[in-house]
Design goal:
The protein is α+β, with helices and mostly antiparallel strands. The protein is built from ten helices and ten strands. It has two domains: 56 residues; 148 residues, no CATH class. The strands form three sheets. Strands 1-2-3-4-5 form a five-stranded antiparallel β-sheet, with no helix packed on it. It has a three-stranded antiparallel β-sheet with strand order 6-7-8. Helix 2 packs antiparallel against helix 3 and helix 7 crosses helix 10. The longest helix is centred in the last third of the chain and has 40 residues.
Length: 271
């Protein structure tokens, strides 16, 4: 008897609470406030009350305020921690698309729907992913970091993600299973270019142009169109295959030149 796959609908508000996003933001803002209060208090005591406060301490704490302030600013750019792409994309449109999806559990900490992928409580639109991979070798059976490269020209890192697990049912029950091929199979680009990972030349060549392609696309399209259609992925595939064809052409040209040089060398020896 085959076990039924777990399903769920998601609400962005509750997912964000589970990720602790509001609490982390509150902590950072509170820490920044306390640091600013401390610096202002020290300056007041030094300048107004003429108390013996070391100027070095004021300078040190001021640098702390600037450092924590910069970190807080960068952290707050991501509107929702459970939506890493909200750093660049409109949250309202992401929320609308996400909440109409039905997710199925496909592996530990991994859920998939038609348009979205959930990894360890973080949600990603499938149509913006061009690469997924880890930093450690799968046979190490240890936690690693999952790298997600997007068509936005930005990379997202899932820290402490465990790609190796033991299924509790199915043909691989009780065996160590590598999660990466399964994750890669869930994104549309895998069907569009099945062996793209092996075509390193084209992959590396098209990478620098991804951000420009995305920026040009967003001038005339919405976030909803970006995450629910494959229009931008189609353009990516066309550019990818152009570089792959160019590589084959250069390879063929090199072989022809080598044969011509070999023929010329033989002719010279005969003469």
């Amino acid at each position: 008897m085959v076990a039924a796959m777990k399903e769920k609908k998601v609400k962005l508000f509750w997912e964000e609470l589970k990720n602790g996003g509001p609490f982390r933001k509150l902590f950072l803002v509170g820490a920044e406030y306390l640091l600013i209060y401390g610096v202002v208090k020290e300056m007041y005591e030094k300048i107004v009350l003429h108390e013996d406060v070391a100027i070095q301490l004021i300078i040190f704490n001021t640098l702390w305020v600037l450092a924590v302030g910069y970190g807080t600013k960068e952290y707050l750019k991501c509107r929702c921690r459970c939506l890493p792409v909200s750093r660049w994309l409109n949250v309202s449109e992401l929320k609308k698309s996400l909440e109409k999806e039905t997710f199925q559990k496909v592996a530990p900490k991994t859920w998939s729907s038609e348009k979205w992928l959930c990894v360890d409580g973080h949600y990603y639109p499938k149509n913006i992913i061009v690469y997924m991979g880890g930093w450690n070798h799968p046979t190490e059976r240890s936690g690693t970091n999952l790298k997600i490269r997007t068509i936005l020209g930005e990379d997202i890192i899932e820290y402490g993600y465990f790609p190796i697990y033991k299924p509790t049912f199915g043909p691989n029950r009780g065996k160590w299973v590598d999660n990466y091929p399964m994750l890669d199979a869930l994104i549309p680009l895998t069907e569009m270019i099945p062996d793209r990972i092996q075509k390193r030349h084209a992959y590396d060549s098209v990478e620098p142009s991804m951000k420009k392609m995305y920026e040009e696309y967003m001038k005339t399209h919405s976030v909803t169109e970006l995450i629910e259609t494959t229009e931008l992925l189609d353009a990516y595939v066309a550019e990818f295959m152009r570089w792959e064809d160019l590589r084959h052409w250069k390879k063929s040209k090199k072989k022809i030149e080598e044969k011509e040089n070999e023929f010329t060398a033989k002719t010279v020896r005969i003469l």
